[in-house]
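Reading a protein record of the kind used here takes little practice once its layout is understood. The fold follows as a row of integers, each naming the local backbone shape at the matching residue. With these conventions in mind, the following record can be read line by line:

_____
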Amino acid sequence: MKGGHAMKKKPNEAKIASLVRGLLVELGEDPARDGLLKTPARVAKSLAFLTQGYRQSVRSVVNGALFASGTNHMVILKDIELYSMCEHHLLPFFGKCAIGYISKGKVIGVSKLARIVDMYSRRLQIQERLTDEIAAAVMRETGAEGVGVVVRAKHLCMMMRGVGKQNSEMATSAVLGSFRTDEKVRQEFLSLI
């Protein structure tokens, strides 16, 4: 995959399972023992699901759910659960996302905001890029006056290994349009989330 574009090809789960079997051997395990017998296939199926965002597009996720609106109020959806995998260690990070935008003639179906978060989360990610991708997609699809996105997440690569900081949480934000240029708009968004 180059440049973050979606891949349409479904992963070869049999090949992934074979690679997982080899990995188990390299780790000193016996993939033929009872507890691990079906693990390679389970991991392959799990990885295919956890990376399905590569095989989706914003257009298919939004699926035309844009509606005319005469108002230009701030719309906010917060506490959107997200689960992703860091591209550096292939370990999960998880948390919550808040999205706000000021509509300019059209609003997006509220469930579609959560689906956009899922689509970008189900790729190998870093939290900073994930936050930016969500904001850019909402801005592009809605033609909003401004967009704000905040993601707060815990990273198992920090919690389970390395520095071992179990209670650390990373926060990232992306602000576009009026959320970037107007301090009052940005503050309203941040106070409401």
User: Anything to note?
Assistant: Helices lie at 13-26, 39-50, 58-62, 110-121, 127-142, 156-159, 178-181, 183-192. The radius of gyration is 19 Å. The chain has a mean pLDDT of 93.
